[in-house]
User: Fold this.
Amino acid sequence: MTSGLVVALDPAGGDGVPGAVGAVPAFTVGEATAGWLSVALEAADAAGSEWWADWLRRLPGVAGVEVVFVHWDGADPEVTRADA
Amino acid sequence: MPTLEATRRQFVRTAALSAASAVIGSRAAAQPPTPPGGMELPVLPGVTWDKAPCRFCGTGCHVQVGVKDGRVVAVSGDRRAEVNKGLLCVKGYHVGHILYGPDRLTRPMLRRNGRLEPITWDEAIETIAGRIQAAPAKFAFYGSGQWTVSEGYAANKFIKGGLGNNHIDPNARLCMASAVTGYISTYGVDEPYNCYDDLDHCDVLILWGNNFAEMHPVLFSRFIDRKLRGDKVTLIDLTTRLTRTSERADHVFVFQPQSDLAIANCIAQQVIAADAVATDFVAKHCTFRKPWKRPGDPQTLMGEPCSFDEYKQFVAEYTPEAVSKTSGLSVEQLRLLGSLFADRSKRISSLWCMGMNQHTQGTAINNLVHAIHLLSGHWGRPGDGPQSLTGQPSACGTVREVGTLSHALPGDLRVDKPDQAAKAEALWNLPPGRINPKVGYHTVQMWEKFCTPADRGGDIDTLWVQVTNPGQSLPNLPKLFEKKPADKFLIVSDVYPTATTELADLVLPSAMWVEKNGVYGNSERRTQQWFKMVNPPGEARDDCWQTIAVARKLFDLGHPGMKDKDGRFLFHITDGNGREVPVWRWESYYGTVNVDEKLYEEYRPFTQIKHKDVAPYRELTKARGLRWPVVKQPDGTWKETRYRFLEEFDPYVAKGKGVQFYHSVAGDDKAFIWFRPYVPPPEVPDKEYPLWLDTGRVLEHWHTGTMTRRVPQLKRAVPAAYVEVSREDAAALGLKTGDKVRLETRRGSLELTAWIDGRGRCPKGHVFVPFFDETKPINRLTLDAHCPFSKEPDYKKCAVRLVKVSA
Assistant:
């Protein structure tokens, strides 16, 4: 499962975020522009994707994470019964 | 050498990164995005892309849907969409998944001997037509703000133009009816004059009981982005509990339930006391209104004229000192609000949604928020005005504009106004007098009549539900849903089993979202179109087809209402050669004509009657929605309208007028500035039930959770309903997070897990429960008392007690 994310950097402390994120193999870091950082996140499944997105949200210097793209071809979308 | 799989993954990763970079490029630029290729869609092998509005809330974000081999495999925020500028919230992120639950309904099923058994579509259609033919006046249609425009239009025409009983109402009665009556009684016509652009221009954003961060997250980000960029903007959260919105607010003012009425009057009192009334604007464009002839008389929707001096006297008692006692806000907090409205140099945007609408004084508080903006002159500049938001994707488009309410006709016409009904009859080519002038049952009445035995006045015996889940969303479920008599017949068209299908006698499998053609209308008057992209599963079919097929069966059975005045079928649809297409047959529905386009174009002239001209269908196919009125220009192009009633933007304002409320109630082009008094709620905490119960939504789940609870990521994030309890109340009850607690109201009880200081935080004396969880239906406890004008129930406050069950 692959996601495209926009990371909003905290104006007072977001400088270290690209390095910290880039050190994690699941992420591919793109450009940082005007307080935002583009990131691709690749995980084996939706649960992994969710875990890393949550990690990113909690990373010091991150003010917010927004999703702009998601691709799950080849991965089970894992839709289940509501009461399962 | 990389493997094929590695290459494919690299390809997708690059596409994801490009999508994110392009969005950042757009946001960083002062102007709309210009980089070459910046609007291009991700290139993925075998994937085709097309636009659609998101299926969930009323924001109206556009997504690009990636389809491969007949399945949706990817979703991307649509960077061409002005609403979301490429962003998605967590629900939009998973919108593609909602099609693929393993328990999708795929065959019609009829209940026999207590069990739902598969039947054919022909049997299903014959069964419905037979019930209606036997007693057309006892049939009702219960629809939705998730109906597409054409679905709602077909249902409305079927019942009002065909059956003539007007018993049609939508679930939107439960969420935005108070906004409708608020707009109509203030400006004479429904829907906001302004749009989301206000978020880009305001200096101060006041949220009136609106958890904006969770309910409309993409719009919230649009505003918060300005803060991140260093804009000096102030966010004020007027709320009854702390939420994620509060975390980002500059000021959080926690008020007592219902006291919003007093707070609004207090702002008016201070504006007058500070001599800050926008005298010129008010003199030219407004008149004052009181709710009765004399204080103490029952209030009316349209009230009585009053002078400024009378108005000033009415609000005089709402001083900060007095309202501090009612509201729980400090005098300083109230003074801050008053001083903001007294200062014209700042642009103030007020937003609201369920907090103001689900209110036994819903119309009144809507009137009052419009009033303080008009009185103070905080009205009419971009970023400076009041605007309601909606919770469903087409609450505006299908309910308010198509008129699927029990009193309404398309285009803001009413069934009980003979001249207006005559216009509808003319457009529908019906014989004069076909439309019944008696207003039908509103939602609470409809379900009450359905759940009451026939020999005790329950005169609705067959009820057809489409695209909604009243078995979970109606208030006071024991009274309004669970009492269904065995001889009453409930038909439910849906995509998944729900609390409503549990009681249904006939279940019909429906197509959803991009499994069908559709048009929605969002909260800012934006009409949005999409095409069918994938097939629905099994025998699932469009709701619109279902309605037309039943109408045709009635036509064949000789029901006179299914013919127009020339004897043609009510849904007479022709191809390019003028030949009738039998669209009531499924095999012809997606054949030589686009039924969605045909019905939409049939509906479109209605919208021109009250200057709400929606765009031609063909224009919508090219755009990411257009805000009405959409008017053709001399050069042949079509132009949308960002702000109504303002000469600078609205082509229907007469030249030289500046501002013109051209549908004003009094016919004088002026809006009403209302006084409405503070009225206590119908049920308040007492010794027996000492706490307030508030209900609502959470970010991850949409309404009753039938779609989002089937997405594991969303379900894992918030797996079950809970009760938020304050630290103080938890200590008094000996509760800690995770303890089981029973909630009891005068209507029912429910066991839930306590959450103390969780995502939301309630003040002492107040608990909150979300309503998304069908296994924990909180609406077994809520109150069905409703606003006397909008008929919208109050889900936000009733009295409850908590009993600790176990640790």
